Amino acid sequence: MKNQVLLGEATIPGGDRVLKLYQGKDDCNIVISGRGELMSTRKHASESALGTLACELLKSADAASVLIGGLGMGFTLEAVLAATGKQARVVVAELVPEVIEWNKGPLGSYSNYPLSDARTEVYPGDVSDLLRDEGKRYDVIALDVDNGPEALSTSGNDWLYSRNGVNTARESLNKGGVLAYWSATADPQFTKLLRDCDLHVSEKSVYAHGNKGTKHTIWLARAQR
Ligand SMILES: C[S@@+](CC[C@H](N)C(=O)[O-])C[C@H]1O[C@@H](n2cnc3c(N)ncnc32)[C@H](O)[C@@H]1O
Q1: Measured CA distances, 135 to 50, 91, 138, 172, 186 (Å)
Q2: How far is the CA of 72 from the centre of ligand 1 (A)?
Q3: Which of 51, 64, 155, 175 is 20 to 30 A distant from 17 in Cα terms?
Q4: What value does the mean pLDDT of the chain take?
């Protein structure tokens, strides 16, 4: 990539796809082999909105218990930390160990080093493991592990967007909790699946950056009872 310095490379566990972190003059980009840009520090409004909009739906976010999957460039985590109080506890699951290290280095400066916040706990692994742990409950579960329900970088993520995965996530919510998903595109079938799983769903279309251009989709879902 022109005028970009390669800072790191990582193979996504469970597959052969490779993530590459590049730094330019004013930005960082993560590119995924065979697919192009996955994330950029220049365009993160919708990733931030995922965290903000989900926390806004809580009666009180002061001491919220939040699960984020995955870390990426840390913008959802930064937004959740800003939207919650001092007693909040935020677990962020990240599948690729190098991504966690990148966020501790130069990449972290773009999201205000959210891993350094005392409320943050990192789980270096698959967010599905935490959802399957029946002992754990959250007020907010915010999932942005890929481009959306249909475009997956690792087939292991299929489960997260399946009926079983959605039901398991719903069961992991505290009463009044919010289950939020990010996607690069709208997906009516996934909206239907969420509703079929007895969730009250609101679908938002959010600009990737500023107030024009590409829009992304955020689903905010709450248990009906
Ligand atoms: C699109 S990025 C997330 C962007 C993030 N919302 C932000 O604010 O920058 C997706 C991240 O999820 C991670 N990931 C993919 N599958 C995962 C899984 N099953 N569990 C945890 N992290 C996962 C990827 O390695 C990548 O870092």
Answers
A1: 25, 14, 10, 9, 33
A2: 5
A3: 51
A4: 94
Per-residue pLDDT tens over the stretch 41-71: 999 999 999 999 999 999 999 999 999 999 9
- Give the domains, in start order, of the chain with CATH numbers: 42-223 (3.40.50.150)
Predicted local distance difference test score (pLDDT) of residue 151:
58
* Mean predicted confidence (pLDDT) in 69-98: 97
Mutate to test the pocket of ligand 1, among 94, 112, 161 (most ligand atoms within 8 A of CB): 94
pLDDT at 167 > cutoff 90: yes
Mutate to test the pocket of ligand 1, among 39, 107, 133 (most ligand atoms within 8 A of CB): 39
Confidence label for 225 from pLDDT (cuts 50, 70 and 90): low
Where does ligand 1 bind, in terms of residues with CB under 6 Å? 38-39, 47, 69-76, 93-96, 99, 126-128, 144-146, 154, 157
Which of 117, 55, 52, 109 is closest to 86 using CA atoms? 117
CB-count burial class (<10 Å; 0-12, 13-18, 19+) for 47: buried
- Please tell me what DSSP assigns to residue 116: G
